[in-house]
């Protein structure tokens, strides 16, 4: 398997979608397991650790400054992560997962949607930004995306998250973009909205 340190928890409910958990800067493969269990009890959970280190803190791709990405690295790392997910699907016998990413993890999830559309079945993007200034033309028809932004987020400008929502919608995704009265950190509202959204996806798939 492509070399990603990761955690995997098998499904307890075969009807729940597998989740790909992607942590933020400085997190690791353990960070979002609790969130995954809360928003979709019974789902298989696949949680890799980002392979880039920034002052010792794991990330999924390099950045040049706060909010300024090394886009060549974004592309390379997204493709590597896509290979890992494809291999994990075979190894663990899971379907294409729904990505649940926070901050840096949400940004690599957005890049994956644009660069490898078939690798994810949908995504919950928590405090995400546009990952590529010149993204490829992606075909995201039939995919559902929940984008949750913070009204007082000091890292993600409102115009940037709105542009990401528009970009994904133009590619055919069903995007539900909500701006919460929050900053960059997650709130209980994020958990509740994500849980309800995944429940709605399950209901439509049933």
Can you put this structure into words, describing what you see?
GO terms for molecular function: hydrolase activity. This is Hydrolase. The protein has 206 residues and is α/β, with parallel strands linked by helices. It has a single domain, classed as Rossmann fold. 35% of the residues lie in helices and 23% in strands. It contains five helices and eleven strands. The protein has helices at 33-39, 71-92, 104-115, 158-170, 188-205; strands at residues 6-9, 19-22, 45-48, 52-54, 57-59, 63-65, 68-69, 98-102, 122-126, 144-150, 174-180. The strands form three sheets. The protein has a seven-stranded mixed beta sheet with strand order 1-3-2-8-9-10-11, sandwiched between helices. The protein has a two-stranded antiparallel ribbon with strand order 4-5. A two-stranded antiparallel sheet has the order 6-7. Strand 4 and strand 5 form a beta hairpin. Helix 2 (71-92) packs across helix 3. The radius of gyration is 15 Å and the shape is globular.
């Amino acid at each position: 398997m492509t070399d990603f340190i990761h955690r995997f928890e098998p499904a307890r409910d075969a009807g729940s979608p597998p989740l790909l958990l992607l942590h933020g800067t400085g997190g690791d493969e353990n960070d979002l397991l609790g969130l995954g269990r809360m928003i979709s009890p019974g789902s298989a959970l696949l949680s890799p650790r980002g392979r880039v280190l920034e002052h010792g803190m794991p990330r999924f791709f390099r950045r040049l400054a706060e909010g300024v990405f090394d886009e060549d690295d974004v592309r390379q790392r997204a493709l590597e992560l896509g290979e890992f997910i494809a291999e994990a699907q075979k190894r663990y016998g899971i379907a294409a997962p729904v990505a649940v990413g926070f901050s840096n993890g949400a940004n690599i999830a957005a890049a994956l949607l644009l660069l490898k559309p078939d690798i994810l079945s949908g995504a919950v993007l928590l405090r995400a930004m546009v990952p590529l200034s010149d993204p490829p033309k992606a075909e995201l028809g039939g995919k559902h995306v929940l984008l949750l932004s913070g009204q007082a987020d000091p890292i993600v400008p409102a115009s940037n998250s709105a542009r990401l929502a528009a970009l994904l919608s133009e590619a055919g995704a069903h995007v539900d973009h909500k701006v919460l009265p929050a900053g960059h950190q997650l709130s209980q509202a994020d958990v509740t909205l994500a849980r309800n959204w995944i429940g709605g996806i399950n209901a439509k798939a049933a």
